[in-house]
Amino acid sequence: MTEYHRPTSRADALAALAAGGPRARPLVGGTDLLVGLRHHHDAVDAFVDLKGVTDLPEPVVVTDDAVRIGPTFTMGELVGHPVVRAWFPALVEAALTVGSVAIRNRASLIGNSCNASPAADTAPPLLVHGARVTITSLDGDRTASLDEFFLGPRRTLCGPGELVTRLDLPRPAPGSGSAFRRLTRRRGVDLATVSVAARVGPDGGLVVGMGAVGPRPLRTEVPGPVDLTDDTSLDRALDELLAVATPITDVRGSREYRLATLRVLTKRAVLAAADRRDPREMAS
Amino acid sequence: MTSTARIPDHLDDDPLETVTLTVNGSQRTVAVPTHRTLLDGLRDEVGLPGTKSCCAEGECGACTVLLDGRAVNSCLVLCVEAEGHEVTTVEGLSADGLTDLQEEFLNAGAVQCGFCIPGQVVSAEYLLRTNPDPDEAQIREALSGNLCRCAGYQRIVRAVQATAARRSER
């Protein structure tokens, strides 16, 4: 039997989640949850719909040095947001690959992280942009980096009775750039075979986030500067960055295919990210 | 009530939720079990079969409706979530006869078996309302969540282009 709750306050939402235990699930877009329910991956005793809660953080708040995202911010709102587009192009590229227009009109960014698919499209760019999440329960708030948040396939730090109420993205330093690349079997409405986000920092250091090549989205970095014009130094950096990848063979690709394409995609993402660095900031 | 494929049977024990929503401009009240989708509510309770049930997991777009003016997959919205909201189905778009968009679908020969067309029309209408002058890439992107198994995509794109041109002349 399934119950549906439409709390209007954060306290009521947390109380409903706490009372329902592990089979009470927060609901925003439902684009993963309802599919999971239909395929029996998810057993749900209680839906706790967050869309009527009035005292959760705003969908999106821009400050001088960060963008703060609330639980109801959708992928559709994300891809149309001028500041997000300017500061986090890799995230926008990734969100544009999620499902379709109709999916993006419902799916929430925080929900995509909480679902914790190893292939979650927005996870690699959020990892390279240093996202932090705030996890709230009746006992109060705690924060964690997104890298700490992902524990394994569909497992996160957010446990029963808890809710991710906020995701913070620090404004990228001047002179950095980011890009996202993804391989799928077909365009649109398909899960990633391999996905990569890359960020080149002002010092020429590289940060890479990877999807579908491990039990959870992965983040690695090499300190700068890396000379991207020199094949040998770029190859050495790629060796170091990709050492953590442990893809499996499944319906979307073999382990060998994923490793081979991961290297190609990472190189492309790194070079595209470097191209987006603000040239005025690179003169020094 | 017609059963949607692959819903676990034990969920039919769910309590009935009374949901009041606006469908195509009229207020409707339906009673549905919690897990039932907006798609189920529209087809089985409100009696509007224009919205099609196909993949039931947000892949094919046959169930696309406008929820508060935004295109969504009605198979991925619980009916209870629509409480107090406005839904427009393909029937609501054409309450006064065929729309210009539907006429252009026919003119372009874009309708083959027809099953995907309600979803295509709703998605295309949403595109044209949010972007009255889309280029071909934008049309293809906007309709990428609507699969046509007859593969009539070229003519569907042409129908949308013709509608945009027609509306710009008004």
List the keywords:
heterodimer, A: 284 residues, Uridine Diphospho-n-acetylenolpyruvylglucosamine Reductase, domain 2, Enolase-like, domain 1, 5-stranded antiparallel sheet, 11 helices, 24% strand, globular, B: 170 residues, DNA polymerase, domain 1, 6 helices, disordered N terminus
Offer a concise description of the structure.
The complex is a heterodimer of chains A (284) and B (170). Chain A has 284 residues and is of the alpha+beta class.
What does this structure look like?
The complex is a heterodimer of chains A (284) and B (170). Among the domains of chain A are: 1-55, Uridine Diphospho-n-acetylenolpyruvylglucosamine Reductase, domain 2, CATH 3.30.43.10; 177-281, CO dehydrogenase flavoprotein, C-terminal domain (Enolase-like, domain 1), CATH 3.30.390.50. In chain A, the strands form 4 sheets. A 5-stranded antiparallel beta sheet of chain A has the order 4-5-10-6-7. A 4-stranded antiparallel beta sheet of chain A has the order 11-12-13-14. Chain A is 32% helix and 24% strand. Chain A has 284 residues and is α+β, with helices and mostly antiparallel strands. In chain A, a hairpin with a 5-residue loop joins strand 12 (194-200) and strand 13 (206-211). Chain B is of the alpha+beta class and 170 residues long. Chain B is 34% helix and 16% strand. A 5-stranded mixed beta sheet of chain B has the order 2-1-5-3-4, with helices on both faces. In chain B, helix 3 crosses helix 6. The chains are: A alpha+beta (284), B alpha+beta (170).
SSE topology:
The complex is a heterodimer of chains A (284) and B (170).
Chain A: E1 3-5, H1 10-20, E2 24-27, H2 33-38, E3 46-49, E4 60-62, E5 66-69, H3 75-80, H4 82-87, H5 89-95, H6 101-104, H7 109-115, H8 123-128, E6 132-137, E7 140-145, H9 146-149, E8 150-152, E9 155-156, E10 163-170, E11 177-183, E12 194-200, E13 206-211, E14 218-222, H10 231-242, H11 255-275
Parallel strand pairs in A: 1-3, 2-3
Antiparallel strand pairs in A: 4-5, 5-10, 6-7, 6-10, 8-9, 11-12, 12-13, 13-14
Chain B: E1 16-23, E2 26-33, H1 38-45, E3 64-67, E4 70-73, E5 86-88, H2 90-93, H3 100-107, H4 117-130, H5 136-142, H6 153-169
Parallel strand pairs in B: 1-5
Antiparallel strand pairs in B: 1-2, 3-4, 3-5
